[in-house]
Amino acid sequence: MSMDCEYVRGKLSSLPRAELNPLERSEILEHVQSCTQCSEEYAGYTRAFHLVDRAKLLDPPAEILDGFSADVLKRIDATNVIGLPRRSHRRFWPIAAAFVLGFLGAMVVHVTRSKSEPYPVLVTAEPRSTLRTTEMSDAEMLSAISCVLEENRKTPGCTKEIPVKQVLLKLHRLRVLLADARRRSQIDRTLVGDARGSAEALELVKEIQDPQTVDALIRALEVYESQGTTLNANRIVSTLASIRSRRI
Amino acid sequence: MTRTDFEQILERYQRPVISIIYKMTFNWEVARDLAQDAFVDLWRSRGTIDSRRPVFTLLYRIAVNKAIDYGRKIKTFPLSDGLAAEGDFSETMEARELRATLKQCAERLPPRQRAIFVLRDMEGLSIDEVAEVLGQSAGAVRSNLHLARQAVRNHLVAYHKEVVYEYGL
Predict the structure, then answer these.
(1) B124 close to A (CB below 8 A)
(2) Distance from A20 to chain B by nearest Cα, in Å?
């Protein structure tokens, strides 16, 4: 039975890899031997496969493999806290979510209160009576953080200096949670059938949409701390404002 | 997955994982870094691994996604800087020419087709394994593979004609 050229050409790329059943293969080969155009087409594939088969020459060089395993294991050891198995994550996530929600709750309460008591320094976000965390924009988040910092200043015993270490710890924690949430959501998207982990991770990412701002703030505060610069509310709030102005 | 299991997987699959990423990015340093990320991600997701499926399919999937994301990030998936970055590694003339030609072929393929082509035709995975790695049906893999092979073939035929014309061979 003669086959038409279009059909044969659709199968030619499978011929050199033995991806066709024996009967089809022999029919196509028979056609190729009797048809000049299909024969030329097939020769092109043969040449292409000859080249591709030599790709094994591109083995990783020794320099690339050197210390590869050791580096991976080192990284795993360094991130051991975050890298708990999923069963432990299931205990970890509610705690993490509670922490983030608690932190954001404090911000929300404070932003709400700021309606009647506007801050004198660079707190420019519109106070809202209800602030849903999933809708929090960069500016709102920054303002919320600045409100928290401002509140610290007003707390008795902290009237002159802000407990920067505490704020930094809080921000570091936030950063870890964000990084972990993002990473997990990426990994989870690649996994089969674990929608729950993915949904939880995505919720966290949604709650705080701007890890770069947290990073920038941490970096700025760390610089101040390392320089031994006197830290007060104004300086930190103006730092926030400058981060905000660069980002908005 | 225990740490010992992981260490065995690391030993067994580091070479193919680096190799797959390299054949998608054509940069050994990038391939090394992304392969490390892939193994770290595998370790982090060990609690959710379905033990009924071979672990390499998940590992390869993470690796391929890393390579594709990298391509998107540099926004030049045509791999513009790959060759320049290779100067430090000792390489035979044959391997150098082969790499240059394969790179030109790979540049003609969209990322997913490139992944299919690399996994099936360069790494020798079966169609079903490629489908499992990429989360596609075997039919979709077959049809993309055909398109990829066609593009590679067409490029090589055109390249060959050019060489013949230029050098009067």
Answers:
(1) no
(2) 12
Rounded Cα distance between B43 and A185, Å, is 15
Domain B3-167 has CATH 1.20.140.160: yes
Residues A106-144: tens digit of each pLDDT: 766 665 554 433 333 333 333 332 223 333 444 444 555
Residue pair B75/B81 in contact (Cβ under 8 Å)? The answer is: no
pLDDT in tens, B73-129: 775 444 444 443 444 445 566 667 777 888 888 888 899 999 999 999 888 899 999
Contact B140, B134 (CB under 8 A): no
Domain boundaries, chain B: 3-167
User: What whole-number distance in Å separates Cα of residue B31 and Cα of residue A60?
Assistant: 9
Q: Name the residue among B19, B98, B150 with its Cβ closest to that of A60.
A: B19
- Model pTM above 0.90: no
C-alpha distances in angstroms, B60 versus A162, B69, B116, B137? 49, 14, 11, 17
